[in-house]
């Protein structure tokens, strides 16, 4: 990074008692093929050896800001955004790993597509034993908008956003534990976003993960996410029933689907809810009907895979005969094919 100008990218990493993994997370950023960046670390009152670990890195691109005490993730993120010097802000967590080409690929895409403001990718899930799975995020803006009606369409620590967009749209404290989902829901209404068809982030699953801690407060998390759902519905001019809102929350995540009680699966309520939601989507022009169908179809597919044997013969037949299910199956297959073809292209280019 040259001293006479601001960097192209600010990598924003909030940290709190991250001594165990922060070394590898920082190293993955310093080893990026794109080098015109600053790594802005906001320490939120760590009491372990986090700062000692950071002191071992002798790199002028690292800038450390310390909070006065433990102020929380939302405060730390907004503080980092206000102090960022880059044109783009790339999120990063203190226990994850970025692929060496991550910054280069995201920066190149946003530079070549000035009408796009957010850029993410797929991610690989891993723990101390190795890789445990992959997340294939949807790619295009229209489908991402449809996805926000249910859950977060981006990997939070794997997104790059234009700085001015985040300055104008800060994280909200009232959405703590789902602050990223709340932000994407608001942004994607007016700002274009995409995910690149590749796995640029390795997301660590551990007992120290913020989301894992949040899962211990299930009622609080349900309240926050349900409020985001209601905000999204209000934006579309739609008011769901209490039953529909509860089912919508359960269907918004794979874990929610797995936890559903047998009596909670009411296909008639679900079908009517999706129908009314689709009408609102069409009336407002929020997204294409095809995008909405593909997202709903993948939810139907998860219901079939994880709860098909529990829902009874009639519900099973209703689900199996739904055309949304088959659209979802096709959309899931095409999405995986896009990731696969990107990998084939990379291997061919190297050869």
List the helices and strands and how they pair.
Layout: E1 9-15, H1 22-30, E2 37-43, H2 50-54, E3 62-66, H3 73-83, E4 88-91, E5 97-98, H4 102-112, E6 116-127, E7 130-135, H5 141-148, E8 160-162, H6 163-168, H7 179-187, E9 192-204, H8 210-214, H9 218-235, H10 242-251, H11 254-259, H12 267-284, H13 289-307, H14 312-320, H15 323-350
Parallel strand pairs: 1-2, 1-4, 2-3, 6-9
Antiparallel strand pairs: 4-8, 5-9, 6-7, 6-8
Helix pairs in contact: 5-13, 9-10, 13-15
Can you put this structure into words, describing what you see?
By secondary structure, the protein is an alpha/beta fold. The chain folds into two domains: 9-212, Spore Coat Polysaccharide Biosynthesis Protein SpsA, Chain A; 236-335, no CATH class. It is built from 15 helices and nine strands. Strands 1, 2, 3, 4, 5, 6, 7, 8 and 9 form a nine-stranded mixed β-sheet that branches. The longest helix has 28 residues, at 323-350. The chain is globular. The mean pLDDT is 91.
Keywords:
single chain, alpha/beta, Spore Coat Polysaccharide Biosynthesis Protein SpsA, Chain A, 2 domains, nine-stranded mixed sheet, 9 strands, about 50% helix
């Amino acid at each position: 990074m040259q001293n006479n100008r601001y960097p192209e990218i600010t990598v924003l990493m909030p940290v709190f008692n991250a001594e165990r993994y922060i070394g590898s997370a920082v190293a993955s950023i310093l080893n990026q093929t794109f080098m015109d960046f600053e790594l802005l670390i906001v320490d939120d009152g760590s009491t372990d050896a986090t700062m000692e670990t950071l002191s071992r890195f002798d790199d002028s691109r690292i800038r450390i800001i310390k909070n006065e005490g433990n102020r929380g993730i939302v405060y730390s993120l907004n503080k980092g955004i206000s102090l960022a010097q880059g044109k783009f802000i790339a999120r990063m967590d203190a226990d994850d790993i970025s692929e060496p080409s991550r910054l280069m690929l995201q920066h190149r895409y946003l530079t070549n597509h000035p009408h796009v403001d957010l850029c993410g990718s797929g991610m690989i899930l891993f723990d101390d034993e190795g890789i445990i799975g992959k997340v294939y995020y949807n790619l295009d803006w229209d489908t991402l908008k449809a996805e926000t009606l249910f859950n977060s369409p981006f990997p939070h620590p794997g997104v790059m956003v234009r700085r001015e967009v985040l300055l104008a749209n800060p994280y909200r404290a009232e959405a703590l534990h789902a602050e990223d989902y709340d932000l994407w829901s608001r942004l994607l209404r007016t700002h274009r976003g995409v995910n690149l068809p590749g796995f640029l982030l390795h997301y660590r699953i551990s007992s120290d993960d913020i989301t894992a801690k949040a899962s211990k407060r299930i009622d609080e998390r349900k309240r926050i996410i349900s409020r985001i759902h209601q905000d999204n519905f209000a934006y579309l001019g739609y008011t769901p029933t209490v039953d529909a809102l509860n089912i919508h929350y359960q269907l918004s995540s794979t874990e929610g689907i797995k936890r559903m009680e047998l009596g909670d699966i009411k296909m008639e309520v679900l079908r009517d809810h999706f129908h009314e939601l689709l009408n609102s989507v069409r009336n407002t022009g929020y997204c294409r009907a095809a995008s909405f169908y593909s997202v709903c179809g993948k939810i139907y597919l998860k219901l079939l895979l994880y709860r098909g044997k529990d829902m009874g013969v009639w519900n099973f037949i209703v689900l199996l005969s739904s055309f949304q299910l088959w659209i979802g199956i096709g959309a899931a297959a095409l999405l995986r094919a896009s990731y696969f073809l990107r990998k084939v292209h990379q291997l061919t280019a190297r050869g």
